[in-house]
Amino acid sequence: MKSIEVRTLGEKYEILLGSGIIDRLKSYLNGYDKILLLTNEEIGRIYYNRVVAQLNDERVVGYFIPEGEKYKNLETISKIYDFMAEKNFSRKSLIVTLGGGVVCDMGGFTAATYMRGIDFIQMPTSLLAQVDASIGGKTGVDHPSGKNLIGAFKQPKAVLIDVEFLKTLPEKEFSSGMGEVIKHSLILENKWYLEFLEKNSQDILNLKSDSLIEMIKSSCEIKKEIVERDEFEQGDRALLNLGHTYGHTLEKLFNFQDITHGEGVAKGVIFELELSRVLNEIDENFIARVRKVFQLYGLNCEPISYEDRVLIEVMKKDKKNSFDKINFILFDKNKKVYRDSVDIDTILKVNKKFSNRYIKGVIDIGTNSCRLFLAQVYDEDGMVIEREICKDVEIVKLGEDVNRNGYLKKEAIERTVSCLKGYKLKADSYGAKSLIAFATSATRDSKNRDEFLSQVKELGIDIKCIAGEREAQLNFLGNSIVFKDRILVLDIGGGSTEFTLGENGEIEFVRSINIGAVRGTEKFFKTGDYTFENIEKCRAWIREMIEEVRFLSEREFLLVGVAGTATTQISVDKKMVDYDSSKVHMSEITLEKLKDNLKLFLSKNGEERKQIIGLEPKRADVIVAGTLILIVIMEELNQKKLVVSESDNLNGAMISKIV
Fold first, then answer.
1. What is the pLDDT of residues 419-444, one digit of tens each?
2. 503 — phi, psi (to 5°)?
3. pTM for this structure?
4. Are 515 and 499 in contact (CB under 8 A)?
5. Half-sphere exposure of 367 (CA within 13 A, CB side)
6. Which CB contacts under 8 angstroms, 24+ apart, belong to 287-292?
7. Which of 287, 465, 605, 636 is the most exposed place for a label (fewest CB within 10 A)?
8. CB–CB of 454/488 below 8 Å?
9. 377: pLDDT confidence band, cut at 50, 70 and 90?
10. Distance in angstroms (rounded) separating the CA atoms of residues 130 and 146
């Protein structure tokens, strides 16, 4: 076990660091009338009972805050105050935080402000919290105008850092913490710590306790020395903000979700290095070295180009600024860091350096659902998805009754346009430079499609109605990112099904056929009557419609399924209470399992089907027809299994310059 003593004005406290040291908490609890163990829902599920059992102390009362940065606000703090007041917490009470950076910041802020200040102890469970949030006494919450705008300086009574917590930390969150660790290594004039991170990357990534302890100890000591010199950020402590001006701007643009703090810091460091290259002509090789270290630890460090107005407007709201100047941490020619304000023209000049990297949005307007995909793309010789931001889906049923009457219903258009308004607002809030939409079979088949398209264009969305074969090509293009073997991509939509055969990005055959989950439902099961006779009629219709692709049964390929009908089979088979894209993508399902799913769907009435775990309720009325189409196609093409991919036409459109 390692011990580090931190001394500030009138205060001193101990940082204990080691493996399996939770039991040391007991020795700090004397003299308090009540103890609030503050954690969040996710960490609480893993560690709360264990900590309470080890303490075995009737003074301990737990409080769980919701998971996520979006709850780091005064509303959540007020609820904690209410709870503490109700339970008669006093000035002689103690708060113990058990969680990541959000819990540490909020627990510290609550302690700083409840009854004008009570004691608190930090037990950080994430790497980010262990090397940053738990140390130094900065506490606070976010405000709609910016990150950590409301806060106070309040030093803890102790910090207990147990590296065993990191063994259950998601890989993404570990990488986030490494953003702050790498930042610490760059603050030092001597770059020995940067060299340590380069040489020991494998041991650190493999979570070897000795390497983790050494790394965290070094980070804590770097921060401790700076905090002791400048507790209230009047001078040197500002150096700890390296990467944070741009990083906090990104977090605000990302609505404090879909980006980790560490990734924001990594991108911010590169932005400030590029500012330093413009202002101080720092060595380009040093920038390349820093990029490589971030990449070693799984961090996308490439800044994103935004419209000038958007970038500056958000940057100006950062709490580190004053007198209408934008402050950054810069590097001089000797790689030494210092704080300075930078004029807007220079900031915008660097922003333009990244003009090939931006946020792009793509919307797929299908027969049953509307989907949004936002990603960071790199556009040079060809377009590449550098990182996915989010994928949203909403069931809008645009194609309701189109098969019967040939028109998009007024209420269906209204539902879809309302959804698209929300998607446009979301894309704008992320600062998306480009937002395109493509409409498929329901819009293609309708006589009033121009009315719908014009309403979408009025929202400021670039929309096109594309042919079925183009939709198939986009599906294949999206899957060519992850498959190099010969594949047959099968996209069962609401109104049509696309077949695309090819290998290594080259298409050999493509066909769009007018069979789909909505079309089949309206044709055979409109009243929810899933009789044997209706099912057989549907099967016969599918077999007849796919006659022109039956020759594919003689070809060799890997069958790949995309879109809702295929992905739902996995979520139902795995009984996913919450849909998890990472567990669906590249999963396999056999024909026999699909038949089991069909039996399950048919064994329930309409309302009961909505309760099936893994089946989205709004998809319950079309899933039988969709599953039948999938099963019949696999039978006719002699396929025993299906690989389900989430790299579909949205991904294809994302890397395509022309939809």
1. 999 999 999 999 999 999 999 888 98
2. -145, 135
3. 0.79
4. no
5. 35
6. 290/182, 290/186
7. 605
8. no
9. very high
10. 23
